[in-house]
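Lecture notes, continued. The same structure-token format from the folding unit now serves as the input rather than the output. Read the line below as a description of shape only.
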């Protein structure tokens, strides 16, 4: 080892149609109906992009990260103390070699902090670099979980999904082999992991892999976060022609929330690609009272930028009164530059003043 720094259909109106909670694009939330588990207060989406005056550290909204020298991307935002009433976070991002360009594979994972949940400092610290043979020279798409000062960092590499661990959150030690190298239903190794801890203390890992030429999303279970049981079939596949994800589903981001009626819900955000090649961020979910029930897709996007900006690698962090959505995407439809945008739900929220630089 190297030391390196669905909604099930039967839930029906008890859960509420996602259409009532997520209108297309960045519109504000629609009115909910009494008794639904997922009214506007659920803060699951849609998301409006942050505007002028809503980001600190001298960053220009809606770009939470705009570092072209190393093409910082693939956000993973971690609530440091697990308390939704406090806003301090750590942000983990994939980075390429300096001046390698946006099309180059990422070679390291860096960390930055933000006291207000969104205004990241300008001093990234390298947490992980690609040095293991199985990584094939690339590491990216971080997913980090915390237990006090301890951190587990899951990531994509050429040979599958890796794991690096830290006792103090500062120095990470990676394993000399991937924790998931192959998938029974996939054409190649898995990528883009998202790990979430369930209320019972077990773990779920969602990932992207290719099946029959199209991106699909798989799922794995674990009791210790190290040994994973990969499910025999995909958790999500592309939808029918004309749907938001008719050409593929990719880069999942899982998070656990509590409904208005006090029930635990697993949300899985992902990047869907339509028939026309346009990407948007959409959503699937299940009640955790039935942790192995199918994920049910919503029928509206929660973030759909205009043009071919191709949002991917969403990261969602929920606070007491609002939720942030971070995504990696092109700066403009004609540019290869990559930026990380940040949006908020509900769209009517008045954000607290950003921290000064």
């Amino acid at each position: 080892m190297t030391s390196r720094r669905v909604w099930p259909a039967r839930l029906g109106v008890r859960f509420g149609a996602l259409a009532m909670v997520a209108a297309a694009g960045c519109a504000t939330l629609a009115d909910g109906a009494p008794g639904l588990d997922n009214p506007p207060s659920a803060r699951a989406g849609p998301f409006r992009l942050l505007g002028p005056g809503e980001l600190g550290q001298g960053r220009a909204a809606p770009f939470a990260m705009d570092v072209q020298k190393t093409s910082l991307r693939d956000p993973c935002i971690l609530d440091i103390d697990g308390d939704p009433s406090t806003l301090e976070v750590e942000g983990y991002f994939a980075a390429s070699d300096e001046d390698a360009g946006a099309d180059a594979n990422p070679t390291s994972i860096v960390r930055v902090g933000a006291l207000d949940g969104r205004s990241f400092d300008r001093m990234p610290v390298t947490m992980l670099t690609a040095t293991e043979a199985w990584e094939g020279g690339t590491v990216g798409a971080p997913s980090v979980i915390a237990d006090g000062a301890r951190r587990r960092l899951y990531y994509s590499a050429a040979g599958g999904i890796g794991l690096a661990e830290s006792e103090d959150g500062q120095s990470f030690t990676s394993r000399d082999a991937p924790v998931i190298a192959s998938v029974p239903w996939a054409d190649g190794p898995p990528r883009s992991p998202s790990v979430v801890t369930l209320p019972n203390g077990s773990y779920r890992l969602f990932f992207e892999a290719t099946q029959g030429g199209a991106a699909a999303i798989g799922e794995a279970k674990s009791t210790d976060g190290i040994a994973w049981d990969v499910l025999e079939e995909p958790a999500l596949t592309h939808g029918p022609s004309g749907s938001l994800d008719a050409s593929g589903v990719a880069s999942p981001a899982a998070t656990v929330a509590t409904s208005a009626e006090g029930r635990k819900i697993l949300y899985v955000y992902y990047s869907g690609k339509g028939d026309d090649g346009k990407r948007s961020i959409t959503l699937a979910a299940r009640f955790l009272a039935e942790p192995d029930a199918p994920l049910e897709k919503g029928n509206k996007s929660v973030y759909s930028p205009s043009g071919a900006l191709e949002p991917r690698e969403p990261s969602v962090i929920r606070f007491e009164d609002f939720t942030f959505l971070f995504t990696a995407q092109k700066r403009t439809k004609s540019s290869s530059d990559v930026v990380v945008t940040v949006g908020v739900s509900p769209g009517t929220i008045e954000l607290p003043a950003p921290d000064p630089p």
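Point for the exam: The longest helix spans residues 12-15.
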